[in-house]
Predict the 3D structure of the following.
Amino acid sequence: MSNQTERRARQAASQPIAPPVTARGARTRAALKRSGRNLFEKHGFQDTSVNQISTRARVAHGTFYTYFDSKEQIFGEIIHDLFMEFNRVMTEQPPAEGASLSHRIERANRGYLTAYCDNARLMAALEQAATLSTGLAEIRRATRVGWIVRNTAAIARWQERGDVDEHIDPRYAAEILGCMVDRTAYVSIVLEASSFDLEETSRQLTRLYCNAIGITYFRDVTSMRDGLAYATKPPQRGASRRAT
Amino acid sequence: MSNQTERRARQAASQPIAPPVTARGARTRAALKRSGRNLFEKHGFQDTSVNQISTRARVAHGTFYTYFDSKEQIFGEIIHDLFMEFNRVMTEQPPAEGASLSHRIERANRGYLTAYCDNARLMAALEQAATLSTGLAEIRRATRVGWIVRNTAAIARWQERGDVDEHIDPRYAAEILGCMVDRTAYVSIVLEASSFDLEETSRQLTRLYCNAIGITYFRDVTSMRDGLAYATKPPQRGASRRAT
Amino acid sequence: MSNQTERRARQAASQPIAPPVTARGARTRAALKRSGRNLFEKHGFQDTSVNQISTRARVAHGTFYTYFDSKEQIFGEIIHDLFMEFNRVMTEQPPAEGASLSHRIERANRGYLTAYCDNARLMAALEQAATLSTGLAEIRRATRVGWIVRNTAAIARWQERGDVDEHIDPRYAAEILGCMVDRTAYVSIVLEASSFDLEETSRQLTRLYCNAIGITYFRDVTSMRDGLAYATKPPQRGASRRAT
Amino acid sequence: MSNQTERRARQAASQPIAPPVTARGARTRAALKRSGRNLFEKHGFQDTSVNQISTRARVAHGTFYTYFDSKEQIFGEIIHDLFMEFNRVMTEQPPAEGASLSHRIERANRGYLTAYCDNARLMAALEQAATLSTGLAEIRRATRVGWIVRNTAAIARWQERGDVDEHIDPRYAAEILGCMVDRTAYVSIVLEASSFDLEETSRQLTRLYCNAIGITYFRDVTSMRDGLAYATKPPQRGASRRAT
DNA sequence: TATGAATGAGACTTCATTCAT
DNA sequence: TATGAATGAAGTCTCATTCAT
């Protein structure tokens, strides 16, 4: 009935906000993102308000809407950056030439746990946000799909080379083992932070992963040397990385 | 739990509400729970209001607080009932005497997926609620712990009998494989309902599970006969149980 | 994207708010309507806020929404009451038996101007609101349609009796002359309140009206005696009823 | 004019903005006006924002205030231009020498409807704006006064020549019949655009008009030939000019 | 002349919970 | 036990206008 509602509906379909042109604008926008990330990490998605974000960034309330459409949008962008970072961390040290399959898998798992650990609070916020906003759920879904596609391909390749059990369905395996790794990270790093041991979790995860697809997991301490360089940041509050 | 909610909860903290004395009271309480469950299933935790629950139960808004302390509490109770139901479904048909290990595991997995499927919407609501309220997160955690303890014990037992790879750490395996099964259920039943195939997912999950702990997974169609009795309810909206 | 928006959309289609049950509720609701009417009269539709309405009615902001869905809705209801009142005033004294056509028309016109005069500020608010909200525009349209239907019928009847020019198209005449009366009321009472003379305007309006449809307009002061009882309220600020 | 707007306007009240000096300035100003007109037509006064106007004109937001004091001011100027255009259309073809009075009236009415039709959306915006801003209401009032003065004079002249009923008060007649024509245009072209028939409305309007002031309205198809040239633009959305 | 960032008051609305009856 | 009115803090978002560059 109201025209205000009608107006909003009309403008919802309008163009996205253009990026800032001046350095000052870029600074403000960055400050808002920084402030947003801090708050989302501290209070989660739901309990962070646009007001808090603006206040902490020391700009007027309205300024927020100069740069972002909504709380969802800024969160989505922060998450996007996070995933960039995620990929960077996970790929920053390519496996040694001729590394065994199980080594590669271990490296990937440890990389995932490491990155998760470094961004635990934000991942927790995402886990929440994805249940509250369809848009953000979609972002997470899309990311997951990318991950699964890549893993499906890898498993299929290994299978062709005879390294992986031929009974395995690569698509299901990628999906199910993806769930395993991701959920283990969430549970052990976010929910049970106090008892988390990155190295051990990584090892156990990898053993189960390799067994599951029929790869022999040979492991001794020496062979792990090449994995020690992962710790890039101080672990977040409540998420210790023991034995790293 | 939102800041606001937490604050209020702290302020109240009075004695818990006594159970109803009269039959009428019991009826009212039950109506509220039924109504609550319906709404939580339809709209999730966050988007269901106490008002809606009361209205649907055809009682005055204030009456809600005669029987429940808060939205969290009624939700917690509904979830508690759900887990009772979950256990009932999962154990309703004990495995045949002398069934092989992989059969037992398959049965357990199919049971879990079946129960999940029957309660998909509520499980989704729980997934959301657990990110919003520490109290509800705790309920979920406790349930998970129980599950893991049992599985840890089972794996250890099997290991002692020499059925399971001795390199496996039962505690980690239980936790990690629990994550795998639970998360796969969530992802495939809640998030990707349209393409869910209970029988196939169950099989794939079991194969990976068995491989992971070093059990031979022998599977043919005949051996599945004992699994057919699971479907107890019509599947919930959007969660088809293909090939069941 | 946001779930809040989705939620709102979902609830927009929900049931209307039930009327109050208790006397206290009825009192509060009435207070809100009174307060709303006062403010709409004083500041118009646009410049009256729900906050002001609640404050003036001495209830909490939220209480407003216990009884009304929105500013539009309460305004719509106030306008509905106004039209009831309008009809009451216009029909409160039936024309004398055997009064001539022109007398009846004069009486109707004076009645309209009188009622308009008594509710000038609210009519002005409606004029504004109808340009701002499709819903309220529709209310006005519906009212106008009713009015025109009745007048079309009357003119057609008169035409059949040979009292009205046969070249006149009753539908157009009703519509156009309705515009004439209504707009004259708005312009002279709302926009040019200071120079408004009810009696004279009424007379002039009626003469043109009668001429337009071909009725002889015979008029002298004596014949007007039966119209003097109209003034029911003190005229509103700025809307003098001279010579009444 | 909204309270907020009025307050600000009072605060500013600085000297009016000088007209642009350079050709570039003139171009920018014109672009803003064009853009404004488009948007006001599309969304009305209230729902058009200064931001939109600037954006559409491809200038920075701040630039708007280089050329205009406020949204009201630019709208006022656009309306001023509109009235110029209105007068141009209405007088573009002077009546044939010796045309009858009713022909002249018909021509004027058709001219008004034609011009209204060509600018329907802007007239609707004005109708809205006049209820929101005292300044714009004043503009409309002034225009109306001019119109009435001319018509009063014309009617008085006709009366002196004995063409018009001597009982008519020229001032009132001009005002009231002006209301009739103007409101009929608004209602039938803006509010009921879909069923608008310019030719028929024009005829009906004229018949009532002539009757009202006591002029014989003689009308046949031939006599209408001189009115056919009015259609100057494609009719605006929703305002069909049937039978033209 | 132009830019575009920044402002901040203010609007509407929701909802868990309390309280008087 | 039941009622339903009342609360009021909190949240999201808009936009005309100013200002520093």
In short: Chain B has two domains: 17-68, 74-230. Residues 4, 20-22, 24-25, 28, 59-63, 66 of chain B lie near DNA strand F (CB under 10 Å from a C1'). Residues 1-13, 220-235, 237-244 of chain B have pLDDT under 50 and may be disordered.
